[in-house]
Amino acid sequence: MKKPKISWMKWMSNFFSQVKDILRKGDITDALFENLEELLLQADTGTAAAEYLVAQLKKEASEKRLKDSWKLMDCFKEQLVILLGETISPVHFAVNGPAIFLMVGVNGSGKTTTLGKLAAYFKSQGKKVFLGAADTFRAAAIDQLEVWAHQVGVEVIKHKEGADPGAVAYDTVKAAAARHADIAMIDTAGRLHTKTSLMEELKKVKKVIQKEIPLAPHEVFLVLDATTGQNALNQAKMFKEAVGVTGIIVTKLDGTAKGGALLAIRQELNVPIKFIGVGEKVETLHPFNPSSFVESLLNPQLFQ
Ligand code: GDP
């Protein structure tokens, strides 16, 4: 896929200056709200998020009897933070024993890469991390995880290709507990999400983990490729229903010129976005904090 020339961060900054242009015009008119909604839709925010934002601004304007459109800017910012999930939800760790994080997502979404980046992120915080190669459908997935584990300097538990993913998950949890790890992150298969068998498989993996640690998994991270738009949302709904997603990790935001997908994802799923991926290298995963994200968009110097 040819990458758009414009980076996501620059795009978001550009998007915000267009919002500013619309709100700077003067009078509050129907045309202003229509222009704003159109801009949001073009940005892939999805209809629900676009309608919500515009409705909130209309409400603000009428309740406060505002005349000057620029006064809507603060309200727009506030509502954006609310849409993105007001407070950052920290990652949940276990009180006793290792925290178990299950990684789910369709093939190609960036699951294994993200797992490697997360391992590096947690290791840099002084955590002892184990990885479990429970995507046993593809030998390449096991190899790829091993490469990451080697690069980051963490242990990986693996079986042969075609082995029972539940058995790998079980061994990973056991090993992590026995060796006093802080975190065990388990990769899973991501074959076609439309096949019920994958969802059944994931449910089984979850059950096996819970036999060993009843409160686990402490996090179920769904990895979504930002460039897949509406499709990502449909996938997300299925995973959420099957295994109860606790956090979303949006990848490939460096490869999309439509960062509004973040809003659509948050709005429709009501699951916090916990990390964003903006590249292939290990340092390109960032914790996601809605308030500082919106603030940074309003301070263009941060993009230089
Ligand atoms: P998986 O099948 O879900 O495990 O996906 P992979 O981890 O193998 O990733 C698929 C491709 O996406 C690989 O070429 C990764 O390098 C790439 N990738 C993953 N995350 C990102 C990201 O944030 N940005 C970019 N540009 N590429 C990414």
Report what the structure shows.
Helix content is 50%, strand content 13%. The protein is α/β, with parallel strands linked by helices. It is elongated, with a radius of gyration of 21 Å. The relative contact order is 0.17. Mean pLDDT is 86; it is low at 1-6 and 300-304. The structure holds guanosine-5'-diphosphate. Residues 105, 107-113, 190, 251-252, 254-255, 277-280, 284 line the site of guanosine-5'-diphosphate.
Bound small-molecule species: guanosine-5'-diphosphate
The portion of residues assigned to helices is 40-55%
The low-confidence runs, each spanning 5 or more residues with pLDDT under 50, are 1-6, 300-304
Straight-line distance between termini: 26 Å
Task: Please summarize the sheet with the most strands.
Answer: 8 strands, mixed
Query: Per the principal axes of the C-alpha atoms, what is the gross shape?
Result: elongated
Radius of gyration, taken over Cα atoms and rounded to an integer in Å: 21 Å
CATH superfamily of the largest domain: P-loop containing nucleotide triphosphate hydrolases
Query: What amount of the residues lies in strands?
Result: 5-15%
Our count of domains comes out at 2
The CATH topology of the largest domain:
Rossmann fold
Q: Mind telling me the CATH class of the largest domain?
A: Alpha Beta
- CATH architectural grouping of the largest domain: 3-Layer(aba) Sandwich
